[in-house]
């Protein structure tokens, strides 16, 4: 199920770039970020109401609150600005470098191990980015 979930997430993020590019033709990135955040918040509040807020520990809520500030607010703002200037394909290719950040933080903060296969995957991802952005 984890693999299918990751593929569905990739599908969602890939679609996000194309939809954002279309919307950014008529809206500034800051307004697009605000609209996107409001839509996300509405969906999250509905999900919490369905599941029940008492089932969520405060520590988990705090971690995901940080994700909301770093990824959704800042990340979307910078992503939308880049998409408006570079286009969906180039911006998405540059976002493929995020495993480098994830691996570094996972090793430092979560004690995860770096394996040769993981490094090979990162090398291939970064090589692809270089080919797309440089070409």
UniProtKB/TrEMBL annotation:
Heme as UniProt keyword: no
Pfam families for the chain: EamA
Identification of the protein by name: EamA domain-containing protein
All copies of domain EamA, residue ranges: 2-133
InterPro entries with a match to the protein in the record: EamA_dom (IPR000620), EmrE-like (IPR037185)
Keyword vocabulary terms for this entry: Membrane, Transmembrane, Transmembrane helix
Cellular component terms per the entry's GO annotation: membrane
Transmembrane annotation, as ranges: 30-51, 58-75, 87-110, 117-134
The keyword Transmembrane helix belongs to this UniProt entry's keyword annotation: yes
């Amino acid at each position: 199920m984890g693999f299918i979930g990751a593929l569905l997430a990739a599908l969602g993020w890939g679609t996000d770039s194309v939809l954002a590019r279309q919307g950014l033709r008529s809206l500034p990135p800051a307004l697009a970020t605000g609209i996107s955040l409001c839509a996300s918040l509405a969906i999250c509040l509905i999900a919490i109401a369905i599941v029940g807020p008492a089932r969520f520990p405060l520590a988990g809520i705090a971690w995901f609150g940080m994700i909301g500030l770093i990824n959704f607010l800042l990340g979307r703002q910078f992503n939308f600005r880049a998409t408006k200037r570079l286009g969906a394909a180039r911006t998405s290719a540059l976002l493929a470098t995020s495993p480098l950040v994830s691996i570094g933080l996972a090793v430092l903060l979560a004690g995860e191990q770096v394996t040769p296969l993981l490094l090979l995957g990162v090398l291939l991802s970064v090589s692809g980015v270089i080919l797309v952005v440089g070409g």
